[in-house]
Amino acid sequence: MAGSGVFEGIKEGEVFKYYTDGEWKNSTSGKSVAIINPTTRTTQYKVQACTQEEVNKVIESSKIAQKQWAKTPLWKRAELLHKAAAILKEHKAPIAECLVKEIAKPAKDSVTEVVRSGDLISYCAEEGVRILGEGKFLVSDSFPGNERTKYCLTSKIPLGVVLAIPPFNYPVNLAVSKIGPALIAGNSLVLKPPTQGAVACLHMVHCFHLAGFPKGLISCVTGKGSEIGDFLTMHPGVNCISFTGGDTGIAISKKAGMVPLQMELGGKDACIVLEDADLDLAAANIIKGGFSYSGQRCTAVKVVLVMESVADTLVEKVNAKLAKLKVGPPEEDCDITPVVSESSANFIEGLAKDAKTKGATFCQEYKREGNLIWPVLLDHVRPDMRIAWEEPFGPIIPVIRINSVEEGIHHCNASNFGLQGCVFTKDINKAILISDAMETGTVQINSAPARGPDHFPFQGLKDSGIGSQGITNSINMMTKVKSTVINLPTPSYTMG
Ligand code: G3H
């Protein structure tokens, strides 16, 4: 049960505490934020509504802790991360339970998220000791006009305080994808969890607490975005922001100061299916890529662009698989579970209605109960429909029939997003040419878009993001190069 056993101290009465200075505390605001269970649509948990004054204190302790942590040997930092990873995995069940209740993630996928997160933390520790243990040595006479009188030694140093803001759909995994790299690189970390997913995050942070990280090194503040959101992202004590989410990221990038930003925002990941594709493989990937976690993934297949000559067969195959998806509560491990909030369900419904009015073919009857939306494939979608461009973040996939590969690439590149895309064909040469032409951070050949494995580079173009993620890239992004130059005597004074 969430809040029981080893997690006892993170809650008082009905409300979960926030974490700072190595302690669990109640906010002086006396206020809390309610977390609504997407399935029951009733309040499941409550978290502290922290104040700006508390944020100031958190960042101050974070700054102090970081100075000492940066001096802690790399192998010791790695050792603590391995410990946290093990504790997290050991407590996968209560953390997964929070995910089921807060974000309606199917039970099995919730456990997978926690286990994947433990593995991610361990990989950060291993990768960190390798890449941070190396620097560069340069000599001056490789640049015109210089003698060999300067030796330059470079190493990677931490940035300071990293602010991590993960989204609701992977609150644990996308939090540790920021925490692991930040800590191994010698930074301290302040976590602002999403409201839905905050309690899973607090449990995860407690695993770091149990591992014995120094006080103040990792903090977790909860509260209303309107009260502490901008205050955190514009805080002069923050030295780096790593954000995953929607449009808010664009606003943050405009307001943040002169600090490195890592942003993973939305996507409208296209799936291009050519005439020679293995249509069974394509259909299976459209189902998995489009409907897992009810389409609430930035890397979900969000538009299918299929050659007209194979469109009927593909649609038929997708529909046959779609009919087998189990719809219902996350506790029963259903494939399609309620979407995260009523406003999200309303938004998805708006896209469906728009497509209906403009003449799309609904392969299934549109059905909704509360936040639960039955999966739908929309055929014959045209570019004048909102669903052709907007990101539903729900179990609804538009199919646009194309007459040439160029038409598909054109549609994909006309999007404001550029996260991932995929192409299904048996012709590898064509696949490579299409990958080169698609303006997205990643193109998957013969598989659905996906971020993992977590050490792969992961990045979006245009409105889909800033910088590149994946464990190695995140560690590098959360460091700065420091040079020390040894100046030698000029050649006239040298011996020999
Ligand atoms: O929602 C955005 C996530 O980064 C997608 O991750 O491809 O592992 O589902 P995933």
From TrEMBL:
Query: Is the Protein biosynthesis keyword given for this protein?
Result: no
Q: Which UniProt keywords apply?
A: Cytoplasm, NADP, Oxidoreductase
* A Gene Ontology term for the protein's cellular component: cytoplasm
Provide the GO MF annotations for this entry.
glyceraldehyde-3-phosphate dehydrogenase (NADP+) (non-phosphorylating) activity; lactaldehyde dehydrogenase (NAD+) activity
Question: Where is this chain's protein located in or outside the cell?
Answer: Cytoplasm
All residue ranges annotated as the Aldehyde dehydrogenase domain in the record: 24-483
Q: Gene3D superfamilies recorded for this chain?
A: Aldehyde Dehydrogenase, Chain A, domain 1 (3.40.605.10), Aldehyde Dehydrogenase, Chain A, domain 2 (3.40.309.10)
Q: Which residues form the active site?
A: E264
Concerning PANTHER family, the annotation shows:
ALDEHYDE DEHYDROGENASE (PTHR42991:SF1)
Q: What is this protein called?
A: NADP-dependent glyceraldehyde-3-phosphate dehydrogenase
Lineage summary: Eukaryota, Viridiplantae, Streptophyta, Embryophyta, Tracheophyta
